[in-house]
Amino acid sequence: MSDVSQAQVPLRREEPLAPQPAVLSPTSSAARADFAQSYRSIMPRLVVFVMRHGADVHEAHEAAQGAFALAWECWETLEHPHAWLRRVAFRHLLRQRGRREHASEEVPDLPGGICPADSVALGTEEALVLRVLGSLPMRQRQAFAWAFDGFSAQETAEHLGMAPEAVRQNLARARKHLKHAWLSMKEGEE
Amino acid sequence: MSTATPPPKDADGEAAFDDWLAATGSGLLARVESATDLDAGCAAIFSATVAPEATTEGHGDIERWGHLDAALRQALDGIAPWLALKTPYALPHQLDKAAGTTRTMTVVGRALLPDSMRLHWGLASDFLDDCHARLIRLKKGLMQRSLSRDEAMALHHRVVAGMANFRAAVQQSVDAASDARTRQVGERLVATAEMLTLLLRWIRDSIEHIFDDTGCPTSVPVG
Q: How many CB pairs under 8 A join A and B?
């Protein structure tokens, strides 16, 4: 899990981490209702998505909450909120990890102000999957996490700034490691 | 977008492996869902964008006019983030917002409307004061779980009725006003009252949300 902060992830110039200050919140009631509905449906999946990158549940909640706080400020302009939230949540995770490397600095308050997550007691097999993913190179984790959430290799490649073939290769390697762990677990059970 | 992308199935157990991955994914999602307070998280984002209102009666006619006019405008704009939410976590904020707005309207109306409207305004501000007091009672009663559903809804209904009376009283005086500044203040007060009425609809939904079938409120977080 230690290489999260060192991951080489291209940051797209057209999509700054800080949104445009002119738009502070959705202007219509319909947009706010849509945001609230989307928060409820996407937030848990976004947390799990970040966890598949090697984050624990609280880090993942913090990253996902931060992404939604930014999304709130530009919700009406987002064309692909599912992908946007995933990209931004991942960057939040990287920033969190980078910030915590400097232990002497105070951690500033994050947008949202609270972590709404209780502790999550993982099942053995869920913990195994996350443990294996956490031991993989970041590109493999990313390829797996995006594929698991239903994005094609082409879409993932566009969002991550990689070649589609590289996405497929990384996905195949991640699956190979996971399958090996699965088979070992089954052998152990037998 | 919640299942693993399945590669071609073969005899190497790929299908069983994918089933296992899907099952662990579903299990993890269910655990995270049950451990996450989505209402609290959403309300935190909404509340972060709400600027606190600052209404003080300043000195100097032009300065005071600008300051109070801006305060009323800010109060009106500040209602929007609390619409479209009906949760126990939003309710204290919604009630605070509604009560705070009635107080702002009272201060602005008292300070900016001319003496010639004192009679009309006296009537209108009585309605506002009633609304403010009932909103405070409503919040206190819900937080202390001392109100039944019927009592809470009755209080809410009286606030809605009081707001309608306020609007009618102000509108009548605005129609009769001759100077532009008075009309501007009156129209802004009416617009704020209309927005407040909209917020009251969402407050009613939030109140209904916190009562279960027994008519007893579930706990309302301190706002």
A: 134
- Identify the residue among B3, B5, B85 best suited for mutation to test binding to A, counting A beta carbons within 10 A and taking the highest: B5
Nearest to A48 among B17, B32, B38 (CB): B32
A39 to B38: CB separation less than 8 angstroms, yes or no: yes
Residue of B nearest to A25 (CA): B49
Contact call for B1 and A149, based on CB within 8 A: yes
ipTM: 0.78
Residue B29 lies in a domain: no
Distances in Å between the Cα of B27 and the Cα atoms of A50, A90, A136, B5 are 16, 22, 22, 17
CATH fold of A121-190 reads Arc Repressor Mutant, subunit A (1.10.10)
pTM of the model: 0.56
B158: tokens are 């009286």
CATH value at residue B125: 1.20.120
Give me the tens of pLDDT residue by residue for chain A, a chain 190 residues long: 444 444 443 333 333 333 333 335 676 667 777 888 899 899 999 999 999 999 988 889 999 999 998 888 888 888 899 999 999 999 989 888 776 544 444 444 444 334 444 567 788 899 999 999 999 999 999 999 999 999 999 999 998 888 999 999 999 999 999 999 999 988 887 6
What are the extents of the domains in chain A?
1-120, 121-190
Question: Across the interface, which of B4, B37, B84 has its CB nearest the CB of A148?
Answer: B4
Q: Is residue B218 part of a domain?
A: no
Q: Is residue B10 domain-resident?
A: no
Residue of B nearest to A60 (CA): B32
Q: Find the closest chain B residue to A38 by CA distance.
A: B42
